[in-house]
Design brief:
about 450 residues, mainly alpha, 3 domains, two-stranded antiparallel sheet, 20 helices, about 0% strand
């Protein structure tokens, strides 16, 4: 489609998001956008996530545990002014060894900011150059990436969610363009790298296996495990710590900066009846909180629905976009600790769906997820200090605060299920009847 067909409002919107992105970059030095974000105001400080990764590399070089933290071992001398604990697989620490041996904490952080900007521009360029879709649609998709507020806190914290998002985007684009064996190999490598960086893309193995891409699954998962195994073999106790950090099903408390669906449900239970979060049901010689049972049931339902929707079709262009969106949404709907910067990782799913379907509804959901949260507006909307304890916040504002991002994700998940034909009681009954007849 010729570029001249792009309307003036779309061009103007793109220009505005470019300006907004420049504001993001300037604020990293000036901090004037910090009050919009919980972690920028109440966290350890700028670059605190990167400092945890940097410290893991320094620990590895010095023979200490990469998971060393006050809550685990606390053996190593810190090389960073402050940090959040390291929870990634070992390959990320392998890479940060070199960085920690050459640069100090702050220079390495600003290098990461620069690299993230280059990665972002590469993602935007890949969208704009994919000429199989309408030029206006591509330009609007690029706007999502440039004007996305969670991207600011991603850069502020020194996170790697953007890198993983771009890897996932690369997998989808390479599969979409169908460039033969070189393209399939590149897609497999990108998926393997995404697993080694953050573990949740492993869930895409479900649609890959459905489409017969078992070599990708075997090689990808095997390679990620192979590069991680030497460290865990040498330190088996650290494998236990890694699993505890990432696979324990519940967060120890309700954090203001957590915006996953589990936090939303947990907060709702606390607002209605805080006693439901206390262990009171006898199970297997111990006590379990009713609220945790509710969250487990809801999480299981999301996973079952995702499996059912995925296994009901085949991987054409539309289904590949739906698969990416469904399994990315599952992470946000079931994981215990979803922070605002994590929402960068849903950009590939929204982009893929919008490019393939042209749905304005999907674009609107993506835009809503990209807006600031209600945190900074607490004093204006609810008459309370944003930094006050949650118990001082009005119940309605607490619900709105935690639901502002995860509810759109749930709506997107349901929308995707409807597109696969597996949402709604009538359709479910029909599918079950058809399958029973085939047997």
């Amino acid at each position: 489609m010729p570029e001249s067909t792009i309307s003036m409002p779309v061009r103007a919107f793109f220009f505005c998001t470019v300006i907004l992105h420049v504001i993001f970059i300037v604020s990293l030095f000036g901090g004037f956008l910090d009050p919009l974000f919980v972690e920028a105001v109440q966290g350890y400080g700028q670059a605190s996530d990167w400092f945890g990764i940097y410290r893991a590399g320094a620990n590895l070089a010095s023979g200490y545990s990469i998971y060393d933290s006050p809550g685990y071992r606390s053996d190593a001398t810190s090389v960073a002014p402050y940090y959040y604990f390291y929870r990634y697989l070992p390959p990320t620490a392998y890479a940060s060894v070199l960085v920690a041996s050459i640069l100090g904490p702050w220079p390495s952080y600003w290098l990461l900011v620069l690299l993230n900007e280059c990665i972002l521009l590469a993602a935007v360029a890949s969208v704009l150059r994919s000429r199989r879709w309408h030029a206006g649609r591509r330009l609007l998709a690029a706007c999502l990436w440039l004007g996305y507020f969670p991207l600011y806190i991603e850069q502020f914290m020194g996170q790697l969610s953007l890198a993983m998002a771009v890897l996932m985007m690369s997998v989808w684009l390479l599969d979409e363009l169908e460039q033969g064996k070189p393209g399939r190999v590149a897609a497999a490598c990108a998926w393997t790298a995404s697993i080694a960086l953050k573990s949740f893309p492993v869930m895409l193995a479900v649609p890959f296996l459905r489409d017969g891409k078992w070599k990708r699954v075997l090689w990808g998962a095997g390679a990620a495990a192979a590069v991680s195994s030497p460290y865990f073999i040498a330190r088996p106790e650290d494998l236990v710590e890694f699993l505890r950090l990432n696979l324990s099903p519940f967060s120890p408390e309700i954090y203001k900066g957590a915006f996953g669906f589990q936090t939303f449900v947990r907060n709702g239970i606390a607002v209605l009846d805080p006693g439901w979060l206390e262990p009171s049901i006898a199970v297997a010689g111990g006590n379990v909180a009713p609220g945790r049972v509710i969250m487990l049931v809801i999480s299981a339902a999301f996973v079952i629905l995702a499996f059912s929707a995925t296994l009901s079709g085949r991987g054409d262009s539309r289904r590949r976009a739906l698969d990416l969106a469904i399994w990315t949404a599952v992470f946000f709907l079931i994981f215990k600790g979803v922070w605002e910067y994590h929402y960068v990782m849903i950009l590939p799913a929204v982009t893929a769906l919008y490019l393939v379907t042209g749905s304005r509804f999907v674009f609107l959901l993506g835009a809503v997820m990209g807006l600031p949260t209600l945190f900074a507006s607490a004093s204006f909307l609810a008459g309370v200090d944003p930094q006050a304890d949650l118990s001082a916040w009005p119940p309605w504002f607490r619900v709105a605060h935690f639901g502002v991002k995860c509810v759109p994700v749930m709506i997107l998940f349901v929308w995707c299920l409807r597109q696969t034909g597996l949402c709604g009681p009538r359709r479910c009954i029909e599918v079950l009847r058809i399958r029973a007849q085939k047997r």
